[in-house]
Amino acid sequence: MRALRQTAIEIAGILFTVVAFWIPFYFIFVNAGKDAQESSLLNLSWPSTAMFWENIKTVVAARDFMLIRAFYNSTVLTVVSIAILVVLCAMAGYVLQRRSDRATPVFNFLILAGLIVPPAIVPTIWVLDGIGLFKTMSGLILVEVALNFPFAVLLYKGFMAAIPREIDEAAVMDGCGGLRLFFRIVLPLLQPVTATIIVLSSVTIFNDFTNPLYFLPGSDNVTVQLTLYNFQSQYVTQYNLLFTNILLITIPPLLLFIFFNKRIVAGMTAGSVKG
């Protein structure tokens, strides 16, 4: 009876995955290969005449190749944000896990508050404008780092608990300074959780729609998600081109998840297993 119940749960989980993820992806895929009239029906039928390549060429060339510029901007945003995020969060997680004084509970509370308190758009714009970073890539990078900072710090802190303090003490006795100890010894030991943070945060930042819309306006600063506006308006929506655009900007995060799925799971569970 228990085996039968477990099998039923697994089948239900698979069916839920198919309904929640694969059917919408199939819907996007088939409508990306239709012409404008057929795609306006918004059904799951296979296109009568496949126009995948024609739609892709139209989407890429739209508005002076805006999609290519958007991919460049999103790549720069993602890579720089992840680099800063990994270094800062690894340092913060290391310090928070190793030190225990009166200030530690305060810092832990602030980290948790960052997960709970929702971001405020208008005050953030006011601050960025005051320091001259509004409508700049640097300002948006700082926003992305700040929003992903609490979650990454908690992951690093949990993983650091599995690394013995004796490693730190031995390195200090051998003459390692603080930065050398961190970058030469501690950071390489954090590779599993670092891979998890890189993949999860990359997908989050690359797919971000709201923050680039508010903090980095302008056609020259467009990111991949904002290119969806190219093919929809109040009166006319080119669904075949819209779905083609969605398909193109979905492929990189999808491939990232497929190839690094095991690393994500291993990084998020390694600390608890070793602990």
Q: Helix proportion of residues, in percent?
A: over 70%
Distance between the termini: 34 Å
| Overall average residue pLDDT | 87
Number of domains: 1
> Remind me, CATH topology?
MetI-like fold
Q: Which percent band covers the strand fraction? A: under 5%
Which term fits the overall shape?
globular
Structural class: mainly alpha
Low-pLDDT residue spans: none
CATH superfamily membership: MetI-like
| CATH class bucket | Mainly Alpha
Instruction: Let me know the largest β-sheet.
Output: none
What order do the helices and strands follow? HHHHHHHHHHHH
What's the alpha carbon Rg, rounded to whole Å?
23 Å
Secondary-structure arrangement, i.e. CATH architecture: Orthogonal Bundle
Number of strands: 0
| Count of helix runs | 12
InterPro entries: MetI-like, MetI-like_sf
Organism: Paenibacillus cisolokensis
Protein name: Sugar ABC transporter permease
Pfam families: BPD_transp_1
Task: Summarize the structure in words.
The protein is an all-alpha fold and 275 residues long. The chain has one domain (2-274): MetI-like (MetI-like fold). The protein is built from twelve helices and no strands. The protein has helices at 2-32, 36-39, 52-98, 103-116, 121-130, 137-160, 165-173, 178-189, 191-206, 210-215, 239-259, 261-274. Helix 1 crosses helix 11, helix 3 packs across helix 11 and helix 7 packs antiparallel against helix 8. The two termini are 34 Å apart.
Summarize the structure.
This protein has helices at residues 2-32, 36-39, 52-98, 103-116, 121-130, 137-160, 165-173, 178-189, 191-206, 210-215, 239-259, 261-274.
